[in-house]
Each structure stands twice: as structure tokens, then as C-alpha cells.
Design brief:
Blueprint (H helix, E strand, L loop, with lengths): L6 H14 L2 H9 L6 E5 L5 H10 L3 E7 L2 H17 L3 E6 L2 E6 L2 E9 L16 E5 L7 H14 L3 E7 L4 E3 L5 H12 L14 H10 L3 E7 L2 E3 L6 H16 L4 H16 L4 E4 L1 E8 L2
Parallel strand pairs: 1-2, 1-6, 2-5, 6-7
Antiparallel strand pairs: 3-4, 4-5, 7-12, 8-11, 9-12, 10-11
Helix pairs in contact: 5-7, 6-8, 8-9
The chain binds S-adenosylmethionine.
Length: about 290
Amino acid sequence: MAEYFSGDWLELREPHDAAARDEMLAVKLSAALPARPRIMDLGAGTGALLRWLGLYIGRPQAWILVDADPQLIERAFDTIAERAEQMGWKVTSPGRGVLLVHTPRGAWRVEGLVADLRDAPANLPLHSVDAVVNTALCDLVSEPWLERMAAACVARKIPFYAALNVTGPARFIPPHRADAWVTRGFLRDQARDKGFGGRALGHAAPAAIARAFTAQGYVVEHSPSPWKIPRAFDMMVGELAMGCAEAALRQERREAWRIEDWADARAAQAEQQRLSASVPHMDVLALPGG
Ligand SMILES: C[S@@+](CC[C@H](N)C(=O)[O-])C[C@H]1O[C@@H](n2cnc3c(N)ncnc32)[C@H](O)[C@@H]1O
């Protein structure tokens, strides 16, 4: 079964992702695309990347949102339509499973594809797209999976853009005596096989992307895209702490009491708006060379 991600969590992270992503890489990706680009978003969740990157592309464009979870794809369609209407843009549906968002700078055509990415790229219509993009996906996959995906992109000479790859553990302020246990468990869990044919890349994803694409003559750029979550923002910091504790608990059963104590303390701090956090990420853009 594919790893499960809740739509509410993806919605919570969307503004933090938007604030963290590197704009220059988005501009460079946009410049490398044709006049009416067709983009495939892998592990698209609720469509947050389309809502952010679509504005940088700023011209007519077509998206295929790929995810294993049909409910997330459905939620992506609802959220895209809702946000477009808030912007005063018309939304139409020319056919079943297709949405057209009529922005002042051209229409965005959106389609969903329910597919298990563990079988990718064989099960993806890569022949019909001009770029492969993703957010917070490459830390789940294995190196062989990434090499296969890179080979498929290289064969078509299309860009690969991977945003918000986690490059280390979350750091919470104020410190807690069990931080090191949670960090250790979190890092172990990052490497857990997520079904993509081997150990998950975790924080090694940016380097693995660079290796896979530069070996094939692509030019690869990295840019840091950290989350900086202030104390009094929303429920994000508390949810992030609970996610780290859950991951750590999967790996550190013998130290469960320490981690549970940590989670209780972090939940109370978040509730009292005394908890802040930062998470290091890296955005990566691989463009065909020459
Ligand atoms: C961390 S979330 C990121 C979601 C989205 N890109 C965003 O930024 O909000 C990872 C996404 O990958 C999807 N996913 C995980 N494993 C998958 C698989 N084997 N096949 C397809 N989708 C998968 C999840 O359903 C989830 O939507």
C-alpha cells in the first residue's frame, strides 16, 4: 500500500511550502518550458504545487495530477476550483475528470490520474508531458526508482523539478531532553522502505537527484527551502511535532515512554503558542544540458 498522507495535513503545510519554495528555480523552469507546457505532478496531493507554480508559468498550461489516493485527487479538484473562484477566475469542466481554470493569463487545464508511483515510470504517460515535477516526494523513493525516473526524463529531454526535499530533522524551540531520541527515530524512519524498491532516500534525495541527472548531461541546481514555523501561526507546529513523534515511535519502541513524554510536552507547548520549529529542505531543478 502507498504511504498515506492526510488532506488536512497537506492543506496545513501549503502556506509554509509556498513561503519556502525557491522562486528563482520556478522562473528558470518556466523559461525552459514551451509556450503551452504540459506538466505532470507526481504525488500531487491536494494540488498545492499547481496553485503555486502555475502563477510563475503564467501562461496557458495543462497539468496531470498523479496520486495513489483518489480522495486527494478529488480534494485537489475542489480546492483548485475554490481558490480560483476566490481569485475571481471562472472554472469550467469540459468533460468528466477535466477542469479548466480561466486565469487572466490563459487557461489551466487540470486532469487527475490515480496511479501507484511505485510502478513508475512504466505506468505514466510521460510521452505527453513537457516536465515532471513534485513536492516532498523524492525522500520517499529509492535510488533505483530515481534512476529509472531520470532515465525516462532524459529519454524525452524534459526537465525534472523536485521541491521541498527534507534534508534533515525538524528542530524545535524550546529544546526538550528527549529531542535526540525523536531525531534518531525520525531519521531511521526516513530511510524505511516505502515500497519504492529499496531504502528510502530521505535527506539524501537532493544528492541522488543530482547524481542521476548530471550523469546524463543535465544541469542540476539546488536551492534551500526551509520551513520556519513561528510560535503563533496555526496548528502546523503541533501537527509537525506529532508527525515526528509518530515516525520516531515506529523505530524506537524501547524508548517509547521518552517519545510519548516528548509528544505530550510538545502538544502542550503548541497549545500555549510556546513552540516554534524549523525544517531544512532543498529544491532541485534538473534541466537538459546544451
Ligand atoms: C508529502 S505528500 C506531498 C503532497 C503534495 N505534493 C503537496 O506538496 O502537498 C506525498 C504525496 O505522495 C503521494 N504518494 C505517496 N506514495 C505514493 C505512491 N506509491 N503512489 C502515488 N502517490 C503516492 C501521497 O498520497 C501524497 O499525496
